[in-house]
Amino acid sequence: VIRGSNEVILGYAGSPAVAGSIDVGGDNPTPASIRNFGPISEIAPDAGIYELDVTIAFTDGPASTTCPNSSIYDVLLLQANTGAPGNAEDRFDLTGASEDYCILQGDILQVEYTDPADASGDVNTVTDSATFDLRNGVLQSN
């Protein structure tokens, strides 16, 4: 999720394990410690089209003083893995992280796919993005 020069990496997909924390700033030198969403499923055998459902919580965006810090926010901090109440230090890869993280109007969700060997045998990276429009509760793709 990108907001201006701030970003958080919500996670990676493709690993058999589901674990890790959200990478604030996109600078975590240990990718294995970043949250992983598990394997990606092909929609049909030999389709070549893969699909992954990821829940994005209100609290999954970059930090901002505009984000609420209230009892409602605490309920939204449920840890995906355990369902137990957590705090920002449990969810993000920062020590002393504040709890002022959220998705705001205009935040950009960017997805990147890297194919280690495409049809020509070369590495190919493809990106796509969408913008959060919180006026009507949709994610608008471009």
Structure write-up:
The protein is mainly beta and 142 residues long. Helix content is 7%, strand content 24%. The chain contains two helices and eight strands, in the order βββββααβββ. The strands form three sheets. The chain has a three-stranded antiparallel sheet, with no helix packed on it. The model has no long low-confidence stretch (mean pLDDT 78).
Spell out the blueprint of helices and strands.
Layout: E1 2-3, E2 6-9, E3 23-24, E4 41-42, E5 50-51, H1 71-76, H2 88-91, E6 108-115, E7 124-133, E8 138-141
Antiparallel strand pairs: 1-2, 2-3, 4-5, 6-7, 7-8
> How is the largest sheet built, in terms of strand order?
1-2-3
The major beta sheet can be summarized as: 3 strands, antiparallel
Question: Cα-atom Rg, whole angstroms?
Answer: 16 Å
Number of strands: 8
Mean pLDDT: 78
Distance between the termini: 15 Å
Unreliable runs = none
In short:
7% of the residues lie in helices and 24% in strands.
Task: Give short descriptive properties of this protein.
142 residues; mainly beta; three-stranded antiparallel sheet; 8 strands
